[in-house]
C-alpha cells in the first residue's frame, strides 16, 4: 500500500510539475507576443485550460468582451447540436392544392420549408439542385401530372421579413458570405457570375454565358484592375431587391467566377422548379413566393396534399462544412431552427442560445452577440465563456463529430475567425483547450497569423 501511495504521489507531483512548466512556457511566449509592434494599439485575450480537468493554465483578458469573428461558430454549432440533436434534419415539403384529374392539376405546386441551408447545395450528393429537382419531378410524374393550371409557389413568408442579422455591414450583405436567411434556401442563397476584363482602368463585362436570373438586374460598375491586383469585386444588394450593384475592380489577368448573395433565394427556387417542370413536358403557368403574394395583397392558402418530402443531411453532417468552410448562412439557419417554438426569428434564436448557456454557468452578458456566424463586427464575447463551451462539448455524445468539424491549422484543431482587423482562434490541441482573440491589430493578416501560431506553438 505504501508503494502504491508513493507512486500516486509521484504521478501527482509530475502532473503538477508538467502543468507548471506549460504555464510558464505559455506566459513567456505571450509576453513576447504582446510586445510586437503589430499589437501596439490592439487588445488581446488568451486563455488555455486543461481539456480534462478544466484547470486554467494561463489567462489574460479572458473576461474582456472582444469581437470573436467566426470562432463564434463553435458556440453556435455546439448549441445547435445540444438543442436540436445531432440527428436533426431540416425538411422541405412539396405539396399540391386543388383537384387532380386526368393528368391535369387545377391548383398550385407548393414548396414549404423549415430553413434547410443545404437545399440545392453542391456540398452533398443528395442536396444538389439537379438531385432535388429530379426528386420533385419524379414525384410529380408518379402522380400522372402533365398539366398544372397554376403556379409554383414557394413559402418564404412563414418566417418574419428580418432575414439578415442586425449589425451586418453593407459591404458584406451583397456577397456570398453575407447571404441572408430564408425559410426556403436555394444553392446556399448565392449565385455566380463570370467576367471578361479589358485593359487596366477599362470596363469589365459579364461573359456571354453568364447566367442571370430573369428577376434580377445586374448594374455593373466594375473596372479592370492592374495585373496581380486580384479580386476586389463587391456586390451590393438588399433583401428581396431586384437590383444588384457590382463595384470594385477585377484584375486584367484574373480568371475567376465571383459569387454573390441572392436577394430572394425562395424566388430563385420557384423559378428553377418551374423551369424544370416545363423542360420535362409538364405545362405550368408561372412562379412566385408567398411573400410576393402577400405584398400584392393576394389571398392564398398554404395547405395541400404531399407530393414528396426532402430531408437535409443530419445536423452533425451540416456542422462539418459550417465550421470547416465557415459558412455563415448555416449558422443563421441553425439559430432560427433553435427558435422554432418562438417563430423562427433571429432575435428569438439568440435568446434561446443565451438562455441555454445561462443555465450552464455562463453569464449571458458575456455573449453579447447579434448573429450566429460571427460576421457582425459588433459582436462581443469573452474568451472565458468560449472556453466553457468548448470544455462542455468534450463531455457530449456528439463531441467527436464536433471536433472533426474544426479545421486543422498549424497542426491544431481550431476554428479561425477573420474580419476587419480581427483575428481569432478557438479549439483543442492534445490535452489543452484554448481561445485567443486579437482585435485592432495593424499590418497584414498573414503576418499576424504567423505570430499567433508561434504563440500557440508553446502548447506543442
From TrEMBL:
EC nos: 3.4.16.4
Q: Which UniProt keywords apply?
A: Carboxypeptidase, Hydrolase, Protease, Signal
| Gene Ontology MF terms | serine-type D-Ala-D-Ala carboxypeptidase activity
- From which residue to which does the signal peptide run? 1-21
Pfam families assigned: Peptidase_S13 (PF02113)
SUPFAM superfamilies assigned to the protein according to its UniProt record, in alphabetical order: beta-lactamase/transpeptidase-like
Q: Is Ubl conjugation included in the keywords of this UniProt record? A: no
User: Which NCBIfam families has this protein been placed in?
Assistant: PBP4 (TIGR00666)
Family assignment? Belongs to the peptidase S13 family.
Official protein name in the record: D-alanyl-D-alanine carboxypeptidase/D-alanyl-D-alanine-endopeptidase
